[in-house]
Specification:
single chain; 404 residues; 27% helix; disordered C terminus; two-stranded antiparallel ribbon; alpha+beta
């Protein structure tokens, strides 16, 4: 059996008052290398404009469709977006950049950041210390101290059951929660997910943990380019270790995939990730393929009903597929900076330290970490950016009152 050597969480440096250009270069290089980052906290300033990616038509809060095409009725979500996976064209959206609590859909960014960091066959024996800090009321897959898991099994716990315990263990394997949060923030910046502020890697309801329909679509689109990510999010069921050589069944909580709780499975659905917390409500990011075309959709917090998020997702996918490839676009999903993507207008002006939820800290081991996506994007502008309720409730999105 391969023994995985667990590293202790790395201490975070304290913020310091002045950075030279050489220091900026060093910080940017550290971001690309996965080193925990610290930057000075800028004084809040309402005068700093918020950078917006994807095009001018996505800035406003209203519904955006090409040519004013009629949308499905009964769309109650606080924000949503539909895009073409291959071209990145946004076909329609509503409040694309509204900053809302993402719940466990943020785990897509966690996977985008760490997937492939460890071999699927690597094995790791969990300790009590690894599970310290899992928030009370979290969705859990059932990770137990003293049990040895493969990396593949831990990722199945993340994707199928949205297990915050599995997230915690993978983050500890990566050097700690704080390090992982810093790397997720750097990854969000590279993907130009400028509405996102990561406080914890699991999407739990921490103050300031925010994303948007646009950013979640970026995370889904990026992840689906990775065959390993695609395979995990499309897995319907698996066996999970229970200790003593025993296993138990886990099932994907995505009702459009599993067809549970009165939801009809969506033809051609790939996944991707559902979520629920008391603050975020039901959230969903999904993708489906029909006649060789793949659409990505994100739906955040419909007004009522545990199945509403799935019903509204299906309605938007039907609408997009019915319009075909001739559907016009209202914007674009930005390409990653590390893949040659053009920087969003205004994103290099300054870190958005004064924006709501963009200050550093506030989460587990998170105090003093790089203060939001805008800080890394600012480094890029300087020429230094080197990265080009439980069982029952989980089925609705992912536990009892706080999260499922």
């Amino acid at each position: 059996m391969h023994a995985f050597s667990r590293r202790s969480p790395q201490p975070l440096p304290h913020p310091f008052p002045d950075l030279s250009r050489r220091s900026l270069l060093a910080l940017a290089a550290g971001a690309s290398a996965g080193v925990p980052l610290a930057v000075p906290r800028a004084a809040p300033s309402a005068a700093v404009p918020r950078a917006v990616a994807g095009g001018a038509r996505l800035v406003a809060d209203g519904v955006r469709t090409a040519g004013g095409a009629a949308l499905p009725g009964k769309l109650t979500a606080r924000a949503w977006l539909l895009a073409d996976q291959d071209t990145g064209e946004v076909l329609a959206c509503y409040r694309a950049h509204a900053r809302l609590a993402p719940a466990s859909t943020l785990k897509m960014l966690f996977a985008d950041t760490l997937l492939g960091r460890f071999a699927r066959t690597d094995r790791y024996t969990v300790t009590d210390a690894d599970l310290v800090g899992v928030p009370s009321g979290s969705s859990l897959v059932g990770v137990r101290a003293g049990v040895t898991y493969s990396v593949e099994q831990l990722w199945q716990g993340v994707f199928l059951r949205s297990g915050n315990d599995a997230v915690q263990v993978l983050a500890r394997m990566n050097g700690g929660v704080a390090r992982t949060v810093a790397e997720m923030r750097a990854k969000a910046a590279d993907l130009q997910a400028l509405d996102t502020h990561v406080v914890s890697p699991d999407g739990y309801d921490h103050p300031g943990q925010l994303s948007s329909a646009y950013d979640l679509a970026l995370f889904a689109r990026h992840g689906l380019k990775n065959p390993e990510f695609r395979a995990y999010c499309a897995t319907g069921a698996a066996r999970f270790p229970a200790g003593g050589g025993r296993t138990f069944a886990i099932e994907n909580t995505d009702r459009l995939l599993s067809g549970t709780y009165g939801v009809t499975p969506y033809p051609g659905l790939i996944g991707v990730k559902n979520g629920y917390t008391s603050n975020a409500g039901n959230t969903f990011a999904g993708a489906a393929t029909r006649a060789g075309r793949t659409l990505v959709v994100t739906v955040l917090h419909p007004q009522s009903g545990h199945n509403s998020v799935y019903e509204e997702t299906a309605a938007l996918l039907d609408w997009g597929f019915a319009r075909g490839s001739s559907a016009g676009s209202v914007g674009m999903l930005a390409d990653a900076l590390s893949e040659g993507g053009a920087m969003a207008p205004g994103s290099g002006a300054a870190p958005r330290a004064g924006a709501r939820g963009s200050s550093a800290g506030g989460g587990p081991e998170g105090r003093g970490v790089l203060g939001g996506a805008g800080a890394v994007v600012a480094l890029a502008a300087a020429g230094a950016y080197a990265l080009r309720r439980r069982r029952r409730g989980e089925a609705a999105g992912q536990t009892p009152a706080t999260e499922r």
